[in-house]
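Design request, tokens follow.
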């Protein structure tokens, strides 16, 4: 058991971690388009880089903040722990979510700078279609189920590999390529590159992700039941004792 880091440090970790994640997503997408004209190869490179980068970030930063990197995960952690006081409180939510969004925007700008792209260019990549929104519901619900399901069965230590593997797979099995993260969705609107999303497509994606969040929370309750006191002590999703590692 380790002492909880100050809230300011945890918020800084969420800012840096989310920024680094988006830099990986956007930067690998730019690199992929420079090296290949095959869209399948581009997506493969983008998904592999994202999975590897996410796993490393969770492993490194999870012990400090829980490595949420995702408002959906932060909100799910708050909801799951609101009765027992084991999850983040509203004060932590209010610190984490803006840090994640700001980090995501900064990560997109950093990736653009590294590849000599315009620092801020609104994406022209339209992602407006009901089947894409369904893909986001599935991706986000699966992510929440995985993270909190692992906590319920006492296997949260597998989260870095499991979450990274899920996101890498979801790039391919969801129609939306698995954004599954409101902060990352906002950040990716700031880059007119392979991984971008048009600003007009952002709100429907976030709405679908919030629906997926609700579905995931319900699935955790249905499949695993109410947590026992022992299970609740396995993972504290805001970083008190062990990381509740999270997501893209």
């Amino acid at each position: 058991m380790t002492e909880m880091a100050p809230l300011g440090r945890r918020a800084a970790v969420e800012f840096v971690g989310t920024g680094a994640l988006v830099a990986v997503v956007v930067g690998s997408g730019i690199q992929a388009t420079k090296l290949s004209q095959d869209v399948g190869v581009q997506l493969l490179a983008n998904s592999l880089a994202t999975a590897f980068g996410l796993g490393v970030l969770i492993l490194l930063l999870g012990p400090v903040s829980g490595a949420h990197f995702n408002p959906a995960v932060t909100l799910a952690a708050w909801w799951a722990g609101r009765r027992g006081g084991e999850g983040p409180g509203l004060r932590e939510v209010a610190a984490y979510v803006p840090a994640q969004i700001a980090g995501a925007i900064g990560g997109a700008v950093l990736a653009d700078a590294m590849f000599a792209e315009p620092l801020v260019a609104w994406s022209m990549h339209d992602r407006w279609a009901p089947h894409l929104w369904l893909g986001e519901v599935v991706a986000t619900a699966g992510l929440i189920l995985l993270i909190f399901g692992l906590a319920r069965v006492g296997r949260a230590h597998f989260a870095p590999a499991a979450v990274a593997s899920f996101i890498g797979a979801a790039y391919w099995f969801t129609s939306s390529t698995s954004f599954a993260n409101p902060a990352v969705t906002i950040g990716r609107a700031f880059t007119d590159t392979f991984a971008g999303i048009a600003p007009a497509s952002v709100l429907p994606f976030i709405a679908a992700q919030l629906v997926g969040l609700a579905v995931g929370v319900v699935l955790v309750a249905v499949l695993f039941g109410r947590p026992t006191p022992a299970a609740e002590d396995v993972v504290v999703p805001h970083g008190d004792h062990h990381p509740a590692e999270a997501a893209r």
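Comment from the thread starter after seeing the answer: thanks! Residues 7-35 form the longest helix (29 residues).
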